[in-house]
Amino acid sequence: MADGGNNGDGAGWVTMGEVAVRAGVSPMTVSRVLKEPDRVRPATRERVERAIAELGYVPDAAAGALASRQSRLVAALVSTLAGSIFASTIAGLGAALREAGHELLLGTTEYSSASEEALLRAVLGRRPDGLVLSAGQHTPAARRLLERATRGLAVPVVEIWQLPERPVDMAVGFSNFAAGRAMTAFLADLGYRRIAFIGVLGPDDFRGKRRHAGYVEVLAEQGLGPPRTFGSGGFGGSAGAGASVEEGAAGLAAVLERWPDCDAVFCGSDPIAFGAITEAARRGIAVPGDLAVAGFGDFDYAGDAGLALTTVRIPGERIGRETARLLLERKAGRLPEPVVVDLGFELVRRRTA
Amino acid sequence: MADGGNNGDGAGWVTMGEVAVRAGVSPMTVSRVLKEPDRVRPATRERVERAIAELGYVPDAAAGALASRQSRLVAALVSTLAGSIFASTIAGLGAALREAGHELLLGTTEYSSASEEALLRAVLGRRPDGLVLSAGQHTPAARRLLERATRGLAVPVVEIWQLPERPVDMAVGFSNFAAGRAMTAFLADLGYRRIAFIGVLGPDDFRGKRRHAGYVEVLAEQGLGPPRTFGSGGFGGSAGAGASVEEGAAGLAAVLERWPDCDAVFCGSDPIAFGAITEAARRGIAVPGDLAVAGFGDFDYAGDAGLALTTVRIPGERIGRETARLLLERKAGRLPEPVVVDLGFELVRRRTA
DNA sequence: TTGAAAGCGGTACCAT
DNA sequence: ATGGTACCGCTTTCAA
Fold first, then answer.
1. Which of A153, A257, B17, B171 could form a cystine bridge with B167, CB 3.0-4.6 A?
2. pLDDT the model gives residue B211
3. Given pLDDT bands bounded at 50, 70 and 90, which one contains residue B10?
4. In the predicted model, is pLDDT for residue A4 greater than 50?
5. Mean pLDDT for chain A?
6. What are the structural domains, with CATH classification, of chain A?
7. B31: CB partners within 8 A, 6+ apart
């Protein structure tokens, strides 16, 4: 219906100049209508807005970015999307950014045959206004790139999820160590004395190791004997949750063989806990009657209608939104200092412990 | 260590011009080293490459996009990241794109208070080389935008997951209808005669409705009586999986009340199946002894170490990679015709049916 | 309140 | 094999 009529080449995008011609103004005025409507006389503004609508004009963000030196792009690099670990965080981040007129560039390192450096390089080429990293995965080459990028805070960085001891810049998340402590202490308070731990403790998975360290410390403090740990090598990060379920099953079998008297198992993740519970059922072991099981993550299926798992809940979406907030604040010139935000976690007691 | 030394302002990025100066060549030669290395004499190329490394030069993609009219960006708009429905598809898509030098721009419509149109508009502003849509969610305003964008195939579009009857352009996925048929027929072959269906059949969730339609058709064909359907209103698309688990539990309760004699339940999704199985356990109903349960999706926890759920597996990652392939082929000028790729699905028999 | 000119950092195209 | 020049579409800056 409403069609410009000129520009018959078909595949082209409408430019600001074309809008300007149609509205009988200069391109600058069109630009102002878009960015600072108040500085344009209402009558003019209206004509321009009509031209924009009629032509279906959508401004070219790349051109805008080049001229204004603001990409309005935030890049998030996470290890994986699987297992819904980061899903809610990414969703929250994306939603908050979009509300502020920014877009989310997503990179996952999971299947990446290419190095983390290649990903980072590609992403930095986009000149993002912010960089979100799921911490603890920086290879040497990547670290060098990162340092160049953040030199003088050219690109603000937020490390999410696990709070790093020495943050690159800002950080939003929680302490896996504290969470590991909290759940272990909680189990101890419940009266369990022989608490085992099943988790992925491979060389790369330093988050799991932090949770485990918390577990070990509480055991020592409360005189609950030496740790009963079953740690698989794992694939680091957050390998497929399906694999974790199997590890949980295998882990419980191993634990029961070595420590047949144990009365509780703290699992490093909900999928692991799922596997452990399945294995317990297979052996006729009542949960929590004979054996209590606790998880970590509060995944979708952990609720009362599902596993009814006692676990630790991480405020994933809030981490995402808070990350967006910090990035935008920093960009706006407020918040010049690096900040570390601990959003904590929540113990959720259900029926397995 | 290796630092350019000039350009002391701190927050700036190294430009191609600076690299050129350092290497003693023109910017064009630097550009060639990056894009068509073969057309540069090895000695020159080496000098340029050294300059690039020493300066830590990362080309500005926005400038490149503007000049070349190629953003090397593919935008994917999905309803949600939760429940790991699209996670593997997005991961596969992103990985395949990156291998070809493209980046993934992600948009989710889930929490979006803004309309789908706003999202689409923001994304089109980036002039993506391709658009990936989880089908069936186009509002009128969005559809108009889409049509403008795809007019003359300016932006190739791939609709994923559910194969649309009238695709906008290309499509990669499977038929929910066929999948619904297949699982129902499979249950019938197994000897089940009174098969119920629990699913989300709200106004928005036309995918679930397609599966249900397949179920209904097979029932009729095989003379298995009228459908025994419990359909919740749902939130359309793929609302939180946690909610689905509860729906599964509630659904089974409702089904058993209305049709106490039923011997199998086909659930519209794995989370629903999870809830149904939980509810069955609560009632002392043996699965599959007293009641068979089948799901849809083959989520992480559906495996043998977990639910051991009989379900339908969708090749999520392959959908992502195939989507990338189509987009890149089309861009390369091959594949001028719209294509629809049916990647099918797989029946996975485990222990619940 | 509006416009003209000069880039932003690359690439296409045509010379050399 | 290499370089010069003219843009890509927008914003910044300054002038009117």
1. B171
2. 96
3. very low
4. no
5. 90
6. 16-66 (1.10.260.40), 72-174+316-343 (3.40.50.2300), 176-313 (3.40.50.2300)
7. B16
